[in-house]
Structure of DNA-binding IclR family transcriptional regulator:
Amino acid sequence: MQNIESPSKLESVDRALQLLIILRGGESISVKAAGERLGVAPSTAHRLLGALVARDFAIQDRERRYRAGPQLTPHGEANFSVNQLRQVGRPALQKLYGDINDTVQLMILMGPHIRFIDGIESEAALHVKARMGDLMPAYCSAGGKAILAELGNIELEKIYRGGLTPWPTARIHALPALKRQLATVRKAGYATNFEETEQGVSGLGVCIRDPAGKPIAAYTTAIPTARFQKSMVADHVKALHEAASMTEKGLVAGLGLRG
């Protein structure tokens, strides 16, 4: 007996392919906009986008818009290696160190962890040692929280489907509590770490995005709690945002050179 696909199934495949083309082109799209582009009801668009998310062809960001997932850009032009990030980010890290005059670090997200890829250590008598190559849970770190705050609930739930990795000084122990704190981070525009990664260390973090708007890294400060003062926050956050902006511009320039 001949097996013939029904027209409805073929239409669904075609619509999914149209969405893949849109996402692969670097656009982010809402359910409503996807429905309008495809000429279907929002419920149908939501179902198609959900299928793409389930297979990592799409991810949902903090504004509940959908953009290209890892399956579409595993080797794409908007991806940057650790060495490229370190190279592009170094001048901004040096400027940040000059502005802060304390330990500053650059980190990336690796699943539920962050990995330190660069840092400049303070020369003060009492200072925090810069980490290189170390891993720690992202939800404890200011930089990790700054990156996680840019992700949508679906992606967060996928990262933490096994629960939060225990950490001795952690103050968050469950995903609902993490989501509440990330909402605060989004509203403030920066994340904090008050002795959550280790006792005696406080810091702030700001996310770095690639040219497609995807969160890929973060800058953080690391200051002994004994020297940390609330009066520092505004100036330090400003310096962190300037460093992130400088790096994002460098990534755009790097894409132009590679293209």
About this structure: The two ends are 51 Å apart (CA to CA). The domain at 82-258 is CATH 3.30.450.40 (Beta-Lactamase). The beta strands are 58-60, 66-68, 103-110, 113-120, 135-137, 191-194, 201-209, 215-224. Confidence is low (pLDDT under 50) at residues 1-5, 74-78.
